[in-house]
Amino acid sequence: xxxxxxxxxxxxxxxxxxxxxxxxxxxxxxxxxxxxxxxxxxxxxxxxxxxxxxxxxxxxxxxxxxxxxxxxxxxxxxxxxxxxxxxxxxxxxxxxxxxxxxxxxxxxxxxxxxxxxxxxxxxxxxxxxxxxxxxxxxxxxxxxxxxxxxxxxxxxxxxxxxxxxxxxxxxxxxxxxxxxxxxxxxxxxxxxxxxxxxxxxxxxxxxxxxxxxxxxxxxxxxxxxxxxxxxxxxxxxxxxxxxxxxxxxxxxxxxxxxxxxxxxxxxxxxxxxxxxxxxxxxxxxxxxxxxxxxxxxxxxxxxxxxxxxxxxxxxxxxxxxxxxxxxxxxxxxxxxxxxxxxxxxxxxxxxxxxxxxxxxxxxxxxxxxxxxxxxxxxxxxxxxxxxxxxxxxxxxxxxxxxxxxxxxxxxxxxxxxxxxxxxxxxxxxxxxxxxxxxxxxxxxxxxxxxxxxxxxxx
Length: 458
Known about the structure:
By secondary structure, this protein is mainly alpha-helical. Among the domains are: 140-265, no CATH class; 268-417, no CATH class. Helices cover 71% and strands 2% of the residues. It is built from 13 helices and 2 strands. The protein has helices at residues 2-30, 33-44, 49-156, 161-173, 175-179, 187-219, 224-248, 250-285, 296-303, 337-350, 362-370, 383-386, 395-421, and strands at residues 372-375, 378-381. A two-stranded antiparallel sheet has the order 1-2. Strand 1 (372-375) and strand 2 form a beta hairpin. Helix 4 packs across helix 7 (224-248), helix 6 (187-219) runs parallel beside helix 8 and helix 7 (224-248) packs parallel to helix 13. The longest helix is centred in the N-terminal third of the chain and has 108 residues, at 49-156. The radius of gyration is 57 Å and the shape is elongated. Residues 71-235 form the Vps52 coiled-coil domain.
């Protein structure tokens, strides 16, 4: 029995030994080279592994106790550091709240500053308006004081440049009343208008005679350039007088315009007839084999001035001429006397040889068309490009010259009528002032409503 127990203990010891060997093999496989060397050294040595393990555990326990003691010793410092962190965080939060509050106060201050600036601007504007109103009131009061003096001078003195300057000065001073519709019917208007109307009635006949002489001088001008120069001078000196009459003595202003329209329509009709007559002769004398754009009937209608919008007295009855294009040039002996006289001066000044006119080609027609310059609604001819066409009987070139003269005549006359008779006190659109008007008489579809402006409309 004892033998059996001893045998079992040996077997258990062997199994335990085998189990330990298996653990040692697993430990050797999982360990590194250095650890394997240390384990091999301990196995080969005479030391007991249990004692070695106990020593290592004792060292680990000592190290654990030292580590715990070190943490216990530093715990107070760590806690104090943590409390300092918490306190700093609280201060940061408080500082951030103060910054936000400061930003809000700053925004409120900015709003207050903006409101103060707006109030300052409003105050400055109101002060300027008060100053402007005070200056206007002072100006109006001064005009009212000087109105009697101007009215006496307008009614009693003769018409000259000084007289017209006084009217211009009075018109400038009264521009405040004319531009402000709210003052119509006011006490100031009712006080000054009768005196101005009385002065205009007393000065009406004098101004009618004065402008009648100026219009007569326009009709006696030698050429259109002289008429334009006189018109510019008349606009500079007399348009304010016409505006004064339109405001306070409208019948006289209408009579002046009627006289101008009657006299100048005859003058311009005479100039246009001469131009169209010369153009008709050029069409016959300088005819070529080139087909024309305008037929003989159209030329006849233009020469007869068959315009339904023209006033009475401007229609001309001319016998119809059988002009058909293309025609052959007349022999020299059959040409009109006016054609010979037209080139006589040039032959005397240059040479005794007759001027030779070559036949028109398609290139001459294209060159004539290339001389046109249309810019800003104005029509002109390039003189440099027209030099090769001087000795060419080109119908297109002569037609363009005729149209250029008539167009410039219409533009100049419309400018004068607009500036002299219909001067607006307010500045209008520049593009609307540049409309190219073909005629300024008898435009029934554009008649205004007032009696004076019903006579003419640009």
